[in-house]
Amino acid sequence: MLLLLLSTLLPGQSSRNAAAPEGNFRESGLPFLRYISPKEHGESTQNFDIAEDNRGLIYVANAYGILEYDGVSWREIRGARNTSFTTRSVAVDSSSGRVYVGLEGDFGYLESDAAGRTTFRSLRDFIPEDSLEFKDVWRTHATDKGIYFLSQNHLFRWDGQRIKVWENDKGYDYAFPVNNRYLVSAFGSGLMEMRDSTLVPLPGGDFLADKTARLVLPLDSRRMLIGVNSALYTYDGSRFQPFSGEVNAFLAENFLTGGIFLPGRQIALATDRGGCAVIDTLGRIRQVIGKSAGLRDLKIHSLTTDRQGGLWLATNNGLARAELPAPLTILNEHHGLEGSVNQMLRHQGAIYAATSTGVYKLLPASITTEGVYNAPRFEQPIIGEVWAMLSMQNRLLLGTNSGIYQIVAGELSRIETGWR
Fold this sequence. Notes:
The protein folds into two domains: 25-331, 7 Propeller (Methylamine Dehydrogenase, Chain H); 335-415. It is an all-beta fold. The protein is elongated, with a radius of gyration of 26 Å. The strands form eleven sheets. A four-stranded antiparallel beta sheet has the order 2-29-28-27. Strands 3-4-5-6 form a four-stranded antiparallel beta sheet, with no helix packed on it. Strands 7-8-9-10 form a four-stranded antiparallel beta sheet, with no helix packed on it. A hairpin with a 4-residue loop joins β7 (87-93) and β8.
């Protein structure tokens, strides 16, 4: 049996005690999530990147090609001579609506052929001859300065007429468009910024010289949030400081692969083996989307949001779309809740559920010092079927088939009424 948890007041909860469990997010259940299997979307199980175009169509970089979704059906976009190809990244230029993609040793954009079919158009003919040998293009970004394509040793920029190349023998790590700036992380150099067609090292950026950067987001007016494999840091333009909060313990166990902002200034973090963690700007974990939510694989390659506010997850085994953030979440058997729910209320700051198998108390989510996230869960039920509950000061009254009971300080006792 599932229980829908609404992020508002519950019966037995006055506005005066509504804030008892700080923020209530520790009690949030699972989001509404739709898993899209490889059988449904077609082609390979592996999906590496996702983007939404100006029309609301979803494009996915898949190990066997480019997938397009119109909200009803999926189709594969092929290259010349109907060939399939491994696609690593995808981005949309919002000014033109054009979709750009990065492949294995190639990159380009999507266009319609004479028959009206969408096909891949390579930009390889525009690449300087001495830069034609490059590996997978893992990052594609559309900016007001042009379209960037990042491979292991090459950074390309297409301005609509020609391609400029920046090579790095030690190798590039990741690149990030942030507030009209374009930041690049390179092995041996650290964090740099593209300025007037030159990659300029940032003050203190060599902190990342021996680290793998996975995320750069604007945290506030003076700081950026920067993520490496196993931790988050803040960067104020000269110094890196460990990000506060419990999230770093979680990342040390699950390894960051990327992240984006969600509506309401929450941050969704993709991980290598822990699914997707949703945190706030204080570093507190508000939710973890894993197998209990419906994911088949916990390795998340990329995240994006659509115009309806849905969160798309590109995983190693299919795709998923979660409704986040949302006013409703689900608590069910994954949280230890069994039976048919008859009533729920808040008593002395805790949520109780009366079901056909007993009364359950919800224990809020927690994270251990070892980085293990414990989702909200219900304690083992007490008594049998409970039809109704009433919160009276320090007592929780329970109406059952066998009489009226009360819970006081965690202890259950029967109330003798003199009637049978």
